[in-house]
Specification:
With about 425 residues, this protein is of the alpha+beta class. The chain has three domains: about 80 residues, 2-Layer Sandwich (Double Stranded RNA Binding Domain); about 100 residues, no CATH class; about 180 residues, Intergrase catalytic core (hpI Integrase, Chain A, Orthogonal Bundle), CATH 1.10.443.10. About 45% of the residues lie in helices and about 10% in strands. The protein contains 16 helices and eight strands. The protein has a five-stranded mixed β-sheet. The longest helix has 25 residues. One of its GO terms (biological process) is DNA recombination.
Length: about 425
């Protein structure tokens, strides 16, 4: 176990571990140490045994928020309390049991980002999930219940919060950024309740509260979106894409829309696709992380044509690069809405293209299990056990993609040619 005098030089030099955690113990004050996590987070700690001989460990503060000198003074105080028969960890626990909902939410975000809270499949919670949790916390949960004592919440309290979010009581005007307007609704309300219930569950597991106070609260039933584009709408959609191309619509945005239509990928999977993940010779894309973890997804020749035709920007790894930075292009939804408007299509979102891909596959006679694998719903184990991924699955993806490409091309072919004396007619 490494030891050294904890000063700024030694703390800065202590390298974070590759996994788990590492502790650098102070060579002068027994029990005083610095814990480092793989994320780079460094926290001063004190470890001791209480009067009952039980080993305890408490956090003194994060390095950068407090200095080594401040941490050393705090360690002396806490160890002095131990010498006097007190148990600082128990005092902290008792104080935490009176935490407000806002405080527990803040604790959750800090601990989850440090990798100390495990989610699905006992893995650290994904950054994208935490971003959504933070948005729900700040926009809806804190304004309604943030001031309440967590341990005194009731089922009625959280179900009322859900009703308030559903009814738009936390709605706000659209800000100056690129995000949308927080408007509430049943879907958002149900997800807010789910997030709060999960946070309270983690707080109980970590000992911040003795019992989950609102276990059994009921989430609103959400009508699952089943909107898909009909054959006629796909033809109209293809015509509108061709019209958009002639009228100066952003080609990167249109390429993202085409890719989504021809693959059934999730929006972020397509928008954030990196060139290194695309294996054209094998006809697949190797995603290191998706909504259902890492996946290898088949991609048909028609979609590959779109992907491989995208111009490469030096220093930008994305298939669909942003024009203003090193990130991925993010404005496809606005383009999609304009194309739908020109096509006379209502009630559709980019996710509708995913439903459409699955529906077309069903019409072509492919089984539900095959369609689930095509869309990335099935696990790799299920795919490998029941579907020959090199042939049967690729065949299903290619045929579905080809059929959608045919309908889009039929629509494009119907667009009237440019006239020199008038605007393009759609």
């Amino acid at each position: 176990m490494p030891t050294a005098k904890l000063n700024k030089r030694n703390v800065d030099a202590f390298a974070p571990p590759k996994d788990k955690q590492a502790v650098l113990w102070d060579s002068e004050i027994r029990g005083f140490g610095l814990r480092a996590l793989p994320s780079g987070l460094k926290t001063f700690i004190v470890q001791y045994r209480n009067i009952e001989g039980i080993k305890r460990r408490i956090n003194l503060g994060r390095y950068g928020v407090i200095t080594t000198e401040q941490a050393r003074d705090l360690a002396k105080i806490k160890l002095g309390e131990v010498a006097g028969g007190q148990d600082p960890a128990e005092a902290i626990h008792q104080a935490r049991s009176g935490m407000t909902v806002a405080e527990i939410c803040d604790w959750y975000l800090v601990e989850a980002r440090a990798g100390n809270i495990l989610g699905r499949k006992n893995r650290p919670i994904k950054a994208s999930s935490l971003a959504m949790d933070e948005s729900r916390i700040n926009t809806h949960i804190k304004p309604i219940l943030g001031h309440r004592m967590a341990k005194r919440l009731t089922i009625a309290d959280v179900e009322q919060m859900q009703a308030d979010v559903r009814d738009g009581k936390t709605a706000k005007a659209r800000g100056k950024g690129r995000g949308g307007r927080p408007a509430g609704g049943p879907g958002v309300a149900s997800r807010c309740l789910g997030s709060l219930q999960a946070i309270l569950g983690h707080a109980k597991h970590k000992g911040l509260i003795a019992e989950h106070p609102t276990r059994g609260a009921k989430k609103l039933a959400i009508n699952k979106k089943t909107r898909r584009l009909s054959t006629a709408e796909l033809v109209a959609f293809g015509k509108a894409i061709a019209y958009a191309e002639r009228n100066g619509e952003n080609p990167t945005a249109l390429a993202v829309v085409r890719t989504l239509a021809l693959t059934g990928y999730r929006r972020e999977e397509a928008q954030s696709m990196k060139r290194a993940w695309v294996h054209a010779e094998g006809g697949f894309v190797s995603f290191p992380d998706t909504k259902t973890d890492a996946q290898v997804r088949s991609i048909g020749p028609e979609a590959l044509k779109v992907v491989l035709a995208q111009p490469e920007i030096v220093g930008n790894p994305y298939v669909f690069p942003s024009m203003t930075g090193a990130g991925a292009y993010q404005a496809a939804p606005a383009c999609f809405r304009r194309v739908c408007q020109w096509a006379g299509i209502e009630g559709a979102t980019l996710h509708t293209l995913r439903h459409t891909f699955g529906s077309i596959a069903g019409e072509l006679g492919f089984t539900e299990l095959t369609i689930r694998a095509m869309l990335g719903h099935a696990s790799q184990n299920v795919t490998q056990d029941y579907i020959h991924i090199d042939e049967a699955l690729k065949l299903a993806v290619r045929k579905t993609s080809d059929e959608i490409a045919r309908l889009l091309a039929e629509g494009a072919a119907s667009l009237r040619p440019v006239r020199q004396t008038s605007a393009i007619e759609i």
